Amino acid sequence: MKNIFKLFLFALAAAALCSCRDYGQKSASLKIVNWNAQTFFDGNNDGVEYSNFVKSKKWNQDAYKERLQKLCKAINQMDGDLVVLEEIENVGIIYDISNALAGNSWNPAKVYRYACFAKDEKSSIGCAVLSRRQLRGMKVHSLDIKSEKSKAPSMRPIIEVDLLAPKPLKLFINHWKSKSGGDDSALWRKWQESLLARKIIEAQKNDSKAAILCAGDFNQDIKEFSIAAADQVELNARFSGEKVLVHSPWLSFEGDLGSYNFRDNWERIDHFFSCGNLSLEEFSPQTGEWSYEDGRPKPFKIYSLKGWSDHLPIACKIEL
Hints:
Helices cover about 20% and strands about 35% of the residues. It has about 325 residues and is an alpha+beta fold. Strands 1-4-5-3-2-17-16 form a seven-stranded mixed β-sheet, with helices on one face. The longest helix is centred in the middle third of the chain and has 23 residues, at about 185-205. It starts with a strand and ends with a strand.
């Protein structure tokens, strides 16, 4: 079994402030934001950073603090009740983000009191969740594959965590294998799809009406998934033959933007997938200071310290 570093973080007195668990309350409306923050390293050299950060003479604590402030300003502007982030180096950055965001608001309802973080111990980057609503029951699911001809690359685990909103919402946070590995990369994403499908099926067996939302950078365009219907994707569990249908807002999105722009071509590789007892609405990529006038993201450049991320954030509203 792989070694996984994980954090389940609560602010002081948060449990007392959010102890209500009356799931019979009226429906809740929540804004969810997902953003690949693009190699978000801190200012220390811990030996896991990418080479361009290690070699850079400009990257230091001051540069990190400036980038952190820009990220937090963007998060504040998007004003999500829950923020999912990919490509975060370590738990210290989550503390820094949480503290910076807390200092920007005197409204208790706007404070991100809860967070969780996980990554493979040998990985440079992991995934995180920041939430204004109570989180509980965090689990981390990883793959250790020995059955393929080629050696499995390092693959980021899936985070499973429950959000009380006040009705429960089960979240699966993903960052699938990038295409940098060539043709083999599709094979490993199929394994990650299988793992996600099995975990959704398990959740549905425990509660057939469970509200489930999957979010993250899947490194796979919506057209590369198996499209089952006008707005549904079919996720397949390898070997068992089981399948699960999930709703994708990209399939009904009428805009021109994607979430990633490669050689002037839009790709829709960051996703929300939903199923069960929830309604997903008002989906769109998010533009702002972090994007050009035509909507393309402003990637972070280590040589100039300019930019935000090579991905656009995506956001949606869910009704529970």
